[in-house]
Fold this sequence. Notes:
Helix content is 38%, strand content 21%. The protein is of the alpha+beta class. It is elongated, with a radius of gyration of 33 Å. The chain starts with a strand and ends with a helix.
Amino acid sequence: MKKEKYSFKSESKELLNLMIHSLYSNKEIFIRELISNASDAIEKDRFINVSQNNSNDLKKNYEIKINLDEKENKIKIKDNGIGMDKNEIIKNLGTIAKSGTKSFIKSIKNNKNNNLIGKFGVGFYSSFIVSKKVYVKTKSVKNKDKNTGIIWKSKGNGEYTVEKIKKKNTGTEIILFLKNSEKYFTNYYNIERIIKKYSDHINIPIKIKRYNEKNKKNVWKQINSAKSIWTIDKKNIDKYEYISFYKYITNDTNNPITWIHSKVEGNQEYISLLYIPSKAPWDIWNREQNKGLKLYINKVYIMDNVEQFLPNYLRFVKGIVDSKDLPLNISREILQENKNINIIKKTITKKILNVLKNINTYKYEIFWKEFGAIIKEGIAEDIENKENIAKLLLFSSLKTKNKNTYISLKKYIKNIKSDQKKIYFITADNYKTAKNSPHLEMFKKKDIDVLILHERIDEWMMNYLTEFKGIQFQSVNKFDESLNKIINSKDKKNKESNTKLKDLIKKIEKILFNKIKKVRITYRFSETPAALTTDSNEMSTQMAKLFSAAGQKVPKIKYIFEINPDHKLIKKISKIKNKKDIKTWIKMLFDQALLNEKGSLQEPNKFIKRVNSLLIKQTSKKNSL
């Protein structure tokens, strides 16, 4: 095969340029990334040999070798893993970042932070931060030609070449021609420190070639411990080792909040090492994101991103499961139907929920800010653990300082009023809208706490969270008799005052007949003349918004129009005799209430015209006086 020249795609060119010129704060991570890639290649080869029972290859001594050349200012990193053929090398090295490239470019431009590297599948290209050119010599295990392989060459300038070379052994060798300013990375002790820092727990020997003064010859010295950390008794693992392993398997630069290391024996035997991150990944809401745990069988790596071990609402959990009972040739399809997997999933889920329940308040609030909205999904998804999930929920409320201070359901019930029969909550588009809702006026006056739900998922969640510890939830956006019962008899007006509004109620019902279900007098407001509620069995405003945002048809909501007989505006309107004027006032009042309830109007221009006409009339009256 003659030398063939290729160009990176335009997006990849931009990304490569940004990486070379912008990611400079922690150059040493290229060692971590290249060793991680070599480890993956070896794990894949080992899995093939074990699953296919290739007797000769089962004896293969897997290792990663690093050769430092101070004179030539070069680094060679070699593995005896699965290797690549021509199509694979073009696919894997010709396209930077298989997904999320635009997001990654944006992240680099905004942050200039190389902590984002491994999260977008662009680890190999970190080598160009320190190198003026890079060669990749590789031979695939599928290659039947005993003496040929492929070499890939690039100077990181947007182009690369591919051609055949003589290569006897399978695997990959990466040769970095370092920039003159990067001689630091040809020093043995510097590379040893970096490997100890980032790659000590890789379950494959990592060796560096160095000159032995005593023997006067080069020797290969193993740098890493090469232990499967999860197989070690947890009494013999310190927290720094746990954290180091977490960073290795996740490429996360932040420490985890906590971890769970457990060994299960009996009918099923497996080890799990699970981590709760402290920071949500950028694509946590992307349904196609890589999620799930790493699967090993008897310490043999099988596959990444096994979703079957975790319910979807725990997709942020990272870690590994090492089973003794699963077959080595297991596929994702078999995993989906395997009964043992379901048992492991149930056990792991309970362990995670229990750990979350018991971590300290400070750590839990960090967790909640990052993953609280995701945990809420579990209320609908996991009926079996619904009660335990409900115990984990945190809410802002009328009595908390702001949207970032929380109360649990347990604490809410502890502080409940003696005559309060329900747990009250309000849903809205955002915290400020909810906190200033007219529906809360009576609760503020009576010093009754109300949970403030201001995330998109909240309305959907509350359809499934109907009670806690035997106490029912009640939306203050919906009409319920218990809301009226909270009002003391002193606050209720006699029937005579209500009869005065009968004519006004009839007029409202006539004018708004096609927009409302009924008109009702209420004493729940102190500052608001009128507001809209829905019946307890009807769709709420927030739910209608969710359906509409999802592109689904929404049935027309006919609201209950509640008026406050004590408000000056209602008293004034009740005395107006002019039909045209009262129609304008009533429509303006309805639009005002609708704006409060929905946050928007279909025809805001008409509302503005009504307000302006009323203002003009009022000011003209004053001027005539």
